Amino acid sequence: MSKQDLVVLGQSDENGACRPGLVAAPLDEDQAAELAKLFKALGDPVRLRLLSMIASRAGGEVCVCDLTPAFGLSQPTISHHLKLLRQAGLIDCERRGTWVYYWALPATLDRLAAFLQTSQTAEATA
């Protein structure tokens, strides 16, 4: 296969079908930059734990007052990590009085899951 024959992820194949996933095709520059931003945000153990705590919360949202005690970090440090997750598009928030409530953004998490899914995983879940 020559370099010209490579299909870039997100572009259609010869049948017009979109080919998502890590093993389907190489990423183009814009897609790589976008995904790198997400992976960079998740590359810190504190942020990964925060996202996990937020996404797994019953009711779909959690108050920052419930997140901070789980870490041996100051409130400003937790707020900084939450800000980075928000800037990456992994979570969103809303201020209610003195507290801020956070929730995960399922579309972004689904996009990450679809990218990481291999053809064997896709067949097993279908």
Question: What features would you describe in this structure?
Answer:
- This protein is mainly alpha-helical.
- Helices cover 48% and strands 11% of the residues.
- It has a three-stranded antiparallel β-sheet.
- Strand 2 and strand 3 form a beta hairpin.
- Helix 2 packs across helix 4.
- The longest helix has 14 residues.
- The radius of gyration is 18 Å and the shape is elongated.
- The two termini are 30 Å apart.
- The N terminus is likely disordered.
The gist of it:
It contains 6 helices and 3 strands, in the order ααβααββαα.
Helix-strand layout with pairing:
Layout: H1 29-42, H2 45-55, E1 62-63, H3 64-67, H4 75-87, E2 91-96, E3 99-104, H5 106-116, H6 119-125
Antiparallel strand pairs: 1-3, 2-3
Helix pairs in contact: 2-4
What is the residue-averaged pLDDT?
A: 81
Portion of residues within helices: 40-55%
H and E string: HHEHHEEHH
Largest sheet: 3 strands, antiparallel
How far apart lie the N and C ends? 30 Å
Q: Which value, in Å, is the CA radius of gyration? A: 18 Å
The dominant shape is elongated
Q: What's the helix count?
A: 6
Taken as a percent bin, the fraction of beta residues is 5-15%
Beta strand count: 3
Sequence stretches where pLDDT stays below 50 over 5 or more residues: 1-19
Q: Which class of secondary structure composition applies to the elements?
A: mainly alpha
* Largest sheet: spatial strand order: 1-3-2
